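Researcher: Re-running this chain for the archive, since the previous output was lost when a drive failed. Same request as before.
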Amino acid sequence: MDNSFRRATLPDLVRLAISLGLLAGSGSAFADTNDSHPGGYQDKPLETVVVTGNRARGNQRTITDSPAPIDVIKADDLQRQSSAGLTAALNSLLPSFNLPAIPGGGSSSLVRPAGLRGLNADQTLVLVNGKRRHTTALVNISSYMNNGSQPADLDLIPVSAVDHIEVLRDGAAAQYGSDAIAGVINIILKTNDHGGNATTTGGHNYGSGGGVVTQSLNLGSLLPNDGFFNFALDVRTQDDADRADSAKGAFYHPLPDGSPDPREETVNRHISSSYGEPRYKLLNASYNAELPLSSTTSLYSFSTVSVRKSEGGASFIRPNSLSANASLYPDGTLPVREIEENDFQSAIGARGELAAWDWDLSTTLGRNKAWLSSRNDLNPSFGNASASHFDQGSQTADQWTSNLDFTRPFEIGLAKPMDLSFGFEHRYERFSIGDGDYDSYANGGYIIAEGPYQGIAPPAGSTATSGYSPDEATSGSRNNYASYLDLGFYPSEKWYVGVAGRFEHYTDDAGNSTSGKLSTRYELTPAFSLRATVSNGFRAPSIAQSIYASSWTRTLVTGPGTSTSYDVKVLPVDSAAAKALGAEALKPEKSTNYSVGFTYEPLNNLRLTTDAYLIKIRDRIVEASVLAGPEVSDILAANGLQSDIAAQYYTNAIDTSTHGVDVVLDYLQDYAAFGSVKWSAGLNWNKTKVDNVNDAPAALAALGSNYTLFDYEAQSDLTKGSPTNKYILNANWLIGDFNVNLRGTRYGEYFQASAGGRAYDRTWSPTWITDLDVGYSITRQLKVAIGANNLFDKYPDKIGPVTGQGLNGYGLYSPYGLTGGYYYSRLSFDF
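Model: Regenerated structure tokens:
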């Protein structure tokens, strides 16, 4: 058990962060660094105005004024990470954000689902310029964490396009709709109308590959009537990084005399990038534009477009396995999964003022399409006639959202005008699966003629992942209609109260949902305020969770360096086989959120916020436990499926509670000739527990007591797979032409259960990770930097257990990755 939270209490952390600033010098907090020091901060981060969670234009809010906790990440903060995309950068900057190294197999190593406040990735809503972002088409399947999720892929947004990111850490379904159970990430694009920046960053892991080169460009241009057009481009390449151990032993059959094959001693097979980081090439481009038509009306538009090609190793096919073919691959083969994606989001709208009402009319179209293929592969059921390259099919996610919003203040005799906002939304969603090559899924009918498997039919389908058959190729769509009302008023100068309500209607089984939110903030003194929120929310099941069908391979560790694998079929909820195993139509997840906290600003440039929260989720959608046994085999066979596999489906199986606390402290200080420093400290502590697991449905219970909906391994992954606490200490020092950023992040204890038995469960100890970025301005335009993420090359505890293919030595869930130190340099030019 991790007692670190008790050892380092909240008062201790607050005192530590304050003392860091006070002990560094006797300089007082500054009001305007630019007057005293040319290298000081160009703005006042503590006074940043936020728009997320606040539709009213009349009463602007800062981070401290907000009745709900909000983080703001600036573009400079993102650039100093030199991370491969927005997802990894946010993991470095936000204590409440968690990103597992390898959440599962297949495409989940590419689109890593990151959770907010201990919840799943698809329980956080992503916006761009306040408009809903579409999700990835790549379903997070064969996964241990965030199973079945389809989050928005943050890495398909150019980092060079981002002005800042606002992270609302509070339930917001009543304000923004489905998915906003944990909170909202709102990515605000740059609006520069002149100049630009070009940056090149190159880096490499210390000893495990994974070199990354990123080139980015941002250009601003003036449009008529003081409008703007801002263009951004990011091009990134990443090599694979491999942390697999040598995969030795039991690869070859003994010789006829019983002695081991001499090749056994020379095998040293690493599983390229299936245990580490994938290889990919990525192009992200975007624009953001606004054109005023008059003093009261403007047109606006923004768009992003991405192309990504990635690859990663699948499971090594041993030369003595049932799936091997000695004629095609005498030494076995490592199939390589390939994914090619096209992605875009385009929005167009108009906003203005009419009869004292601010109005905003917009429509946003988004699509993500992925084509799946493999090479160095085989379909064992075709014998020597098997191909080596397969197209396994495609997945496509479409989303078209249109909004009409109104807001205006009303004088009703209170201390300040009441803000009234209301609006309407229509959203069309579609998910589809395209079938693959015939050879990628078909059974070729081959029977092994000799050897230990003589007379046995090998499994059908390409081994990297079986292609989608015509029966699995499907599509589903739905419409969503929503309306909302949002009120904000001030009973007194010091007291704010907000009330929001939303109604949504889905044209599929998700049906109707109603959510509400009450928020309040009271200023006890000019420096100290209390705030609280209570809300209920929902997350509609994704279309994919209802109709998705695929196969994956489950690996069980059976001893040191040994493992066994078998195929698992994910069944569509409405399929005959799934219904025979107890599957039912999915319902929306329902949540109740509570939050209470305070803000404290004893000095102009010192801010402390603390917020405790409780999030209860009912009918949470999870993937049912892997169902295997003779009774399951009989049902699969009766429905035309292979009988020698296991099965799963998605279900509303559990109720959970997540409680925690967020603490954020910022302090700006001027040290005159010694520069200026922004000190910050952040802490998140959270814990999830399973309150209830539904009884097995009647059809499943009838098969026997061995079948459960949500087993020990799945519960452990959900409740203990992420660190229970994470805190970040950061100092950003500006002196002369230098900018030095030093950050220490402590990730708490986490746990990985093993499907192979509790003897192989593992607990990883807390770890400090140090990041350093040192920048120097050669001229006002030209800047260079060197730095390191994970400066001291820290790895998770190597406590395995290692599979027979050399995987899992460092575990799977590390929140700071498996590849150790990453060292980089950066060259940037402003024009």
